[in-house]
Amino acid sequence: MPLCTMRQMVDHARKKKYGVGAYNVNNMEQIQAIMAAAKETQSPVIIQASKGALEYTNLIYLKHLMAAAVEENPELPICVHLDHGPNLKTCQEAIALGFTSVMIDGSIDYDTKTPEGKHPARSFADNVRVTKEVVDYAHQFGVSVEGELGTLGGIEDETHTDKVLLTEPSQVEEFVKTTGVDALALAIGTSHGAYKFKHEPVLAMDLITECRKRAPDTAFVMHGSSSVPQELVAEVNKYGGKMPNAMGVPIASIQEAVRRGIQKINVDTDGRMAITAAIRKVFMEKPGEFDPRKYLGPARDALQALIASKMRDFGTAGHAGDYRVKSLRAMKSFYAKH
Known about the structure:
Layout lengths: L5 H11 L3 E5 L3 H14 L3 E6 H7 L2 H13 L5 E8 L2 H10 L3 E4 L19 H15 L5 E6 L5 E2 L2 E2 L8 H11 L3 E4 L18 H10 L4 E4 L7 H9 L12 H10 L1 E6 L1 H17 L6 H23 L13 H10 L1
Parallel strand pairs: 1-2, 1-10, 2-3, 3-4, 4-5, 5-8, 8-9, 9-10
Antiparallel strand pairs: 6-7
Helix pairs in contact: 2-4, 2-12, 5-6, 6-7, 7-8, 9-11, 11-12
């Protein structure tokens, strides 16, 4: 089965009313774990890499790791997605590497910093301009594009923004129509990182409903969707970690968001925690261990179990067989007609 575009995947998810998990990767073990979970649950899957991941893997390595995932799992629909692309250049690099989907985060000006060292939010007009520039480029290759309206708090790689701006529903229709994005990330109160909330979050669920009314045919994306399970926090701390108590996004809230119109769900922090807990356990119980396979193997197994659980919770499980994947050439023709 050829690589799938994000557009085809989220369109199917919207029609069948489930959510597709998008899981960040940086190395071989993460990709193997995510694909093993997808195979176990027979789920379509979005593998995504941030700008930082591309730099960490030196581009070409990640390209071939993702190619290996496709070759080893020909029966699964797989989308390879750039997460939080900061500009057109990075999106172009990802497309050249074979990514079938890119995100352009035009809501933040990554090329500018405030005196406090923060990247400022872009104006609506500037966000539209930057996003449309990427859409016009990517659609020539059949590659789908995700944009963003509003900003999240927290940390995304080396990008720091602590000013949360919820998506303004009145801007959604114009943004989608003018830019032509395939999916739109909504800011409803979630945030990046492990330290999201001190108490159970109150998310702007009604905002999803209102945006869906204004853009009925556009997929919506929920960033910062790790649940930060307390058992994982306890596991990390049990083996020498110092994570403070923090709340993530409850699974019930994610499921409610899917019912209201979210199709793509981004998860990163939970995977990092599962990996870290497993590695810490090996080092604490076997301090003389120095074979990387002896601690990366358990980390991979822990991540697989976590992701498989997410796929069942999001409703993705069992949908892999629903797809007849359209090639990038077919998607290029689709965009030319629309």
